[in-house]
Each structure stands twice: as structure tokens, then as C-alpha cells.
């Protein structure tokens, strides 16, 4: 009897644990990241820390390991302002999916998205659903697929902090990398990707940095029936791929328009996000990244 009771108890605990591990849907992640306790995820605030902890829990639920000793990489960097330079402290969240090829696994593919936003302005929360909870849920989708189908090369899944303060997290990561930067094959950055249906087009930036990128974008966008164009905006330095680009690493940036009506506004809300579009972009990203991550030859940086 006691044994049966223990067995039942064990089963209940196990099913609860399993349930807890499967509750991170894109919609739930979006809801939490844009919720009022996070206060718009301004770098250095309590909401910023809560977002980091939550993303770590997501990575653990996917069985994705930390790359450094911890998932969190703290940094304090100077934000260039009119007043001189304010110090900002935040953390990057970094996960690692080891490559399957004994030689190629020493090279890295980076998939990244910033998780911070602009916080409170005039007492109003800026939830940052499109900018950039959309990118966070997209790279979690892609990371989940890669974890289930690992690539020959190793993959770093990086959620950058303090992007809105001037790409502080990504500059720090590049500056303090504990491995040679030349072992990074390519960087895929997702920033504001939640408006595919509204915009009707998936935009890229950086496609010239490796000869194969345009061809792959055309191929996989067509596979999922998504209209694709090179971004009309000249904002190479507008997001976290830029510090890598400066180091002559091939970078590819995914975006669904700047969404000017809601850009950095309290109206950048979760109910305006196109989740089906995010699924499509995740699939395009996964296929494209898989092809690059399994190529025999390393990509060559091409500045044009
Ligand atoms: Zn952004």
C-alpha cells in the first residue's frame, strides 16, 4: 500500500514537472515579457533581471546548457549620452548547443535577439512586444528545433542586454569573448519580427556579408511562401549584429519593418503580434541556419 502511494506521489510529481517544462509557449513568453512587473525591461532595473531569470528558465526547460560557467554574463558599460557617459549594468543570457562534428564543433553559429526595452517613460510602461519580445520568442523557437536536430557546428543562443542603450551587451560579448572571434562562422540577429502579416514582407540586412546569404533567403522564404526583400533602410548599426560586422564576421539581420506607429511607444502591445508570422520566420531561420551550420566550408566575410 505504502509502495503504491509512493508510486502515485512520484507519478504526480513527475507529471507536474513535465507540465512545468512544457508551459513555455511563444504566447506565454510574450505575455510574461510584456507584463507589468517587468516594467518595459529597461536595462539595469528589476524588470530587466526578471526577464533574464525567465529566459534562463526557458533555456533549462529546453535542456540547453550554459556556454560559460553560468547562463548570465554580467557587464557594466558606458552609455554614450549628451551628458557624457552613464554607466549601465545588465547581463547577457547565453546558451550553448554543442556541434555534432568533432572538428566543426570548434566553430560557432550565433543566433541572437535583445531582450531589453526602454522601460517607463512619463510613467507609462513601454511593453516592447515587437521590440523585441518577438525576437526572443523567435530565437527560442529556433533554439528548440536546433536542440532537437543539432548542427555540425556549435550554436550559441544569445539574448543581449542593454541593446537600447547603444548595443552595450553585444559590444561587451565581442570584446570579452573567451574564444577566438575568427571561429564564429556567422551571426543571425532577430529584432522586431512580429509584424509579418501587417508588413507583408520579411526584410534582411547584411545579406552581402556572405555570398550564400541572398540565395538561401530566397530559397527558404519561397519554401514557406513568404515575401522577402532586402531592407530599404540603411541601418547596419541599428542592432546587435553590428559589433560582429565590425570584426568582419558575416551577419544576417531579420526584421519585419520598423512599425513606426508603435515604435518605442506604450502601444507596442502583445495583442498586435503576428504569431503565425513568427512561426514562419522561425522555420525559415532554422532551415537557413541549419544549412550554414552544416556546411563543410567556413563562410568568407564579404564587405561588397
Ligand atoms: Zn530592438
Strand content: 15-25%
Distinct ligands, ions and cofactors found in the model: zinc ion
**General shape:** globular
Kindly name the structural category.
Answer: alpha/beta
Mean pLDDT: 93
Describe the structure.
The chain is α/β, with parallel strands linked by helices. The protein has a single domain, classed as Aminopeptidase, CATH 3.40.630. It is 37% helix and 21% strand. It is built from 9 helices and 11 strands. The strands form 2 sheets. Strands 1, 2, 3, 4, 7, 8, 9, 10 and 11 form a 9-stranded mixed sheet that branches. Strands 5-6 form a two-stranded antiparallel sheet. Helix 2 packs antiparallel against helix 4 (129-148) and helix 7 crosses helix 9. The chain is globular, with a radius of gyration of 19 Å. 47% of the residues are buried. Bound molecules: zinc ion (ZN).
Descriptors for this entry?
21% strand; binds zinc ion; alpha/beta; nine-stranded mixed sheet; Aminopeptidase; two-stranded antiparallel ribbon; globular; single chain; 304 residues; 9 helices
List the helices and strands and how they pair.
Layout: H1 2-21, H2 26-33, H3 46-61, E1 65-66, E2 72-81, E3 84-97, E4 108-114, E5 120-121, E6 124-125, H4 129-148, E7 154-160, H5 168-175, E8 184-190, H6 196-199, E9 202-205, H7 212-223, E10 228-230, H8 242-245, E11 251-255, H9 275-294
Parallel strand pairs: 4-7, 4-8, 8-11, 9-10
Antiparallel strand pairs: 1-3, 2-3, 3-7, 5-6, 9-11
Helix pairs in contact: 2-4, 4-9, 7-9
